[in-house]
Specification:
This protein is α/β, with parallel strands linked by helices and 414 residues long. The chain contains 15 helices and 14 strands. It has 2 domains: 221 residues, 3-Layer(aba) Sandwich (Rossmann fold), CATH 3.40.50.2000; 168 residues, Glycogen Phosphorylase B (Rossmann fold), CATH 3.40.50.
């Protein structure tokens, strides 16, 4: 019997590292026919750095590296929460009308793998339709973050509606995948019978890795990822650089940066710090290890005081640093702190919200204890090799899919 999976996506770029480069490619490797239904913005697909593909990927449906890509114009679900909520409560599919839902039904897949809150909504509609047609399917919710986040600044009414929607959708969801143990526990507190597995945002094990000796003078701090109003704290990073260079030789490498252009970020650098800050720009996923080879510490800064997502976060950059033998410098996110202290692979600033001064004091300590940086880097790489690289995570993914396919076979009397 053939095996098919359809990824439903409302927000992420179709080349997203977790969705496309890891999960989709891994499933294709073990024989699944993989389809991804992905959003366009004003008619165009968009890259992981936000850049628009104006000269490529223009067909509505195409095959890319063996994966079928089906596209639609992005939908603003948020404006219609009450309507969506009532559709879910109806237990019927007749009022599901959006294009993501319709395209999902057309695929007639065995498993629907939803990657956001609203793509889960579409998946529930698809499941109801196919069940009515005698074609049972399974639904996975790949919850990259908490939605709704109880601590963020959002109207109580909107949070209430979303919470009710989530509870309704989870009743019809067959498996939840998430990215940290705390988020896993949060889902189990909603429904103790829910099947929930943690699959970390780990990259494949970086090849050609060689342990390096930390230099005897100066430190190189890396920040990997986006820098904008929602992600990263560039003013804090500049302040940290300014403070540190009055006492030690600190350089910073930004791997990623501003999605549109780094020019705006570069203009904010004081003249006397120009040589202390390096922008690699957006680099190919597979080339990240090259930019990590001489890095001493990887920075992860979260605002754990005002967001459960931040408090429970274990982002891509966290595992990217570890994968390349780079120790973590982070503040007190619950899961990050527990991981770092368990495996002695970094230093945690003991604050839910850390200032530039807090990180500066940590750097002063680490600068005078280079053997500790060295040992933390060795521990970081070792734990990725033994337990946490994508090669280990995909085994969990395969086990989930194997279970769901066996359940489908039983439903179909096979």
């Amino acid at each position: 019997m053939g095996k098919s999976v359809c990824f439903l996506i409302t927000e992420h770029p179709f080349l997203d590292a977790r969705i496309y480069k890891k999960e989709a490619k891994s499933l294709m490797k073990i024989g699944y026919d993989v389809t991804m239904i992905v959003p366009r913005k004003n008619g165009y697909l968009f890259d992981i750095n936000g850049a628009i593909f104006k000269d490529s990927f223009l067909e509505k449906t195409f095959i890319y590296e063996g994966i079928k890509i089906v596209t639609y114009e992005q939908i603003t679900y948020e404006k219609h929460l009450k309507y969506l909520g009532s559709n879910l409560q109806s237990r019927s599919h007749h009022r599901f009308t959006d294009s993501l839902f319709q395209l999902g039904v057309e695929q007639k897949a065995d498993i629907y793998h939803a990657h956001e809150f609203f793509s889960l909504y579409a998946a529930i509609g698809v499941k109801r339709v196919l069940a009515g047609k005698g074609k049972p399917c399974k639904v996975i919710y790949d919850s990259h973050e908490l939605e709704p986040d109880p601590l963020i600044d959002q109207s109580q009414n909107k949070k209430k509606v979303k919470t009710e929607m989530l509870r309704a959708m989870l009743r019809e969801t067959d498996y939840v995948i998430t990215v940290s143990p705390s988020i896993q526990s949060w889902y189990r507190s909603i429904d103790s019978n829910l099947q929930v597995e943690v699959i970390y945002n780990s990259p494949p094990l970086a090849p050609n890795y060689e342990p390096r000796n930390v230099s005897q003078s100066g430190l190189l701090l890396a920040y990997e990822g986006t820098l904008n109003k929602k992600r990263g704290n560039y003013p804090k990073l500049l302040k940290l650089l300014e403070m540190s260079n009055k006492k030690i030789d600190l350089k910073v490498r930004i791997i990623g940066g501003k999605k549109e252009s780094d020019k705006e970020l570069i203009q904010q650098i004081p003249i006397h710090l120009k040589e202390k800050l390096e922008f690699s720009g957006w680099v190919n996923y597979d080339l990240i290890p090259h930019f990590m080879k001489d890095v001493d510490l990887g920075w992860v800064d979260v605002n754990a005081a005002n967001s459960l997502n931040h408090r429970f976060a274990m982002p891509n950059k966290f595992f990217s640093y570890l994968n390349n033998g780079v120790p973590i410098l982070a503040n007190q996110g619950k899961d990050i702190e527990r991981f770092v202290e368990t495996y002695q692979c970094g230093h945690i600033v003991k604050k839910l919200y850390a200032t530039a001064e807090d990180y500066f004091q940590a750097l002063l300590m680490l600068n005078s204890n280079r053997e500790k940086i060295q040992s933390m880097g060795v521990n970081a790489r070792r734990i990725m090799e033994s337990t946490y690289s994508w090669e280990h995570m995909e085994k969990k993914l395969f086990a989930i899919y194997d279970k769901l396919m066996k359940d489908l076979s039983q439903l179909n009397g096979q």
